[in-house]
Amino acid sequence: MGGETHINMVSYGGGVNSTALLVGLHQHRISVDLILFADTGAEHPHTYAYLDVMDRWLKDHGMPPITRVYKTTRDGKRLTLEQECLQSGTLPSMAYGFKRCSLKHKIGPQEKFCNHYLPCQKVWAAGKRVVKFIGYDAGESYRSDKVLLGDLADPKYSKWYPLMEWGWDRAACMQAIENAGLPQPGKSSCFFCPSMKPDEITALREQHPDLFRRALALEDNARKNLKTVKGLGRNYSWRERFGKEFCTHGNG
Questions:
Q1: pTM: predicted TM-score of the whole model, two decimal places
Q2: Using alpha carbons only, what angle is made at residue 189 by residues 129 and 196, rounded to the nearest 5 degrees?
């Protein structure tokens, strides 16, 4: 009928909700054409490992592979969130109460990819919207309520929140993942995320001391510019609370 002018895409975050979303879409026989994962360059190792696990599951279930996208500089070189913070002498914007790191390193690269992706271009040229599945679970309706008007006004994307429609809360999402024969993905975030809880910071220090050192180096590098916050913990410094015995060994 005049060519393919319909695209269903999933923004895959590598955590519980978006994994359950893909499992549920397969269960409900809802087609998926494009799966994007925006890589900040600083995800926890378990998330990178899980992408490979998920890709195998997707292939086994006749679904498209995960396409990894990331932020680039104007001349096309990759720019990780860590590099950007080190170059500017700042912490991730979440430390200051903003969400710019998510906008710049998560949403931005996905939108840029779609803008240059021919199937998406065809949908827009036909006057239609790309359907974007979002993995907010049934306990997070406050999140979709906040963006509802913006969603309705978006000329390029029609947002759909299937987990809410199915009534899947966090526990149901975890159960669906288990039923699909998949391991639990764990929490998805950068290894220096200011929203990490103390036990997660301790686990990082014990399991991945190299990454913990990099987080401390990033905090040390920003210290001279900090006025309103104390460090990666916002009202406390990771080094002061968790890393006094850790040297960052020059640049390492």
A1: 0.89
A2: 135
